[in-house]
Design goal:
The protein is an alpha/beta fold. It has ten helices and eight strands. Strand 3, helix 4 and strand 4 form a beta-alpha-beta unit.
Length: 332
């Protein structure tokens, strides 16, 4: 049995009844991977067809299928082409979840970022929505920096701010992905660029491994203060999810059985509750972060957890959390 098959068999040990199966959902954060990790359209559909009513999705860059020639700074456009073609393939089966948005990558420090964005827009054929340039940086050896290999304080550099101006000029959005101790950097960006749409990925990555192991309560209290300040900026939205990664320290992936929705809620609900309180449902969107979070929990279970956490909200607020906030942010 392959590692992938073994992981799928592990996930299948927990099979919950789907809650509110008719509720329409936009999943605003998933990836696609060819090769060894292998998460492509059929794999996405296996998850989105597993009981929940997933109508639309948004692909978020993960450094796949870059162009192999031409100017190096333009090579990420290959990922947009790759996902656009998958989206076109998906349209042949309109009853299934449709990839309605693409967030790609461009080096926002690049001098020719404007022309790169134009190439993304051209190749995206209406699907291209924005850029993620990850800034996660930590000085501890046990913590890997983000996949874009950012410099320290990337988000505070003048060159980066100039790159964000280009996003704003083209009505594109910015995905902020960094670690919990960098929330204040996003707040500064939001204040400096009040007309730029920014969405915070994965609660700003509260770390729970290495030197941060066992410090979750301490980290949460600091995080709350920083998030409260960030949320005052009306141009910032929040994605609610992405906490089942090994770096968050919950170690679900090491259990004999995968977590139930109740177990995930018990461990993580405070992050969800405080984010919704701070940003309001109209600026929050539940996200799967699949297949990354699939290391720890199944698609069916994670959306059940979201529905349980939103149980006491009004129907209008639920519409925002599960669909409208994502549609509004990405102009789907």
């Amino acid at each position: 049995m392959s590692i992938l098959e073994d992981r799928l068999a592990w996930l299948d040990q927990v099979k919950e009844e789907v809650l509110e199966p008719e509720r329409p959902i936009v999943d605003p954060h998933h990836h696609l991977w060819p090769g060894e990790l292998h998460y492509l359209l059929d794999d996405l559909w296996k998850d989105t067809d597993d009981g929940h009513n997933i109508k639309k999705t948004v692909f978020i860059e993960c450094s796949q299928e870059y162009l192999l020639d031409g100017d190096e700074s333009s090579r990420p456009v290959g990922e947009t082409i790759f996902v656009r073609n998958i989206s076109l393939e998906a349209k042949k089966q309109p009853d299934k979840a449709q990839i309605c948005g693409i967030v790609g990558h461009a080096d926002l420090l690049s001098e020719n970022v404007s022309s790169i964005l134009e190439k993304h827009l051209e190749e995206g054929q209406g699907l291209f929505k924005g850029i993620r340039h990850a800034g996660g940086w930590d000085h501890h050896d046990e913590i890997d920096n983000s996949h874009h290999h950012p410099q320290k304080n990337l988000y505070l550099s003048d060159e980066f701010s100039e790159g964000l101006n280009e996003l704003e000029n083209k009505n594109l959005s910015f995905e902020a992905w960094q670690y919990h101790h960098q929330v204040k950097q996003v707040t500064l960006l939001a204040k400096e660029h009040p007309n730029l749409k920014i969405v915070l990925n994965h609660f700003s990555g509260p770390l729970g491994i290495g030197p941060y192991r066992g410090k979750q309560n301490e980290i949460f209290e600091i995080w709350k203060k920083d998030i409260n300040e960030l949320a005052k900026n009306q141009n910032v939205y929040a994605k609610l999810g992405g906490l089942a990664m090994p770096i968050n320290g919950y170690e679900f992936h090491k259990q004999a059985m995968p977590p139930s929705s109740d177990q995930l809620i018990e461990a993580q609900k405070k992050y969800y509750e405080f984010s919704i309180k701070s940003f309001g449902p109209e600026r929050c969107m539940f996200e799967s972060n699949f297949p990354v979070d699939k290391q720890s929990i199944s698609y069916r279970t994670i959306w059940n957890a979201f529905k349980k956490m939103a149980k006491e909200f009004s129907q209008g607020d639920k519409d925002y959390l599960f669909m409208k906030s994502a549609e509004n942010f990405y102009s789907l």
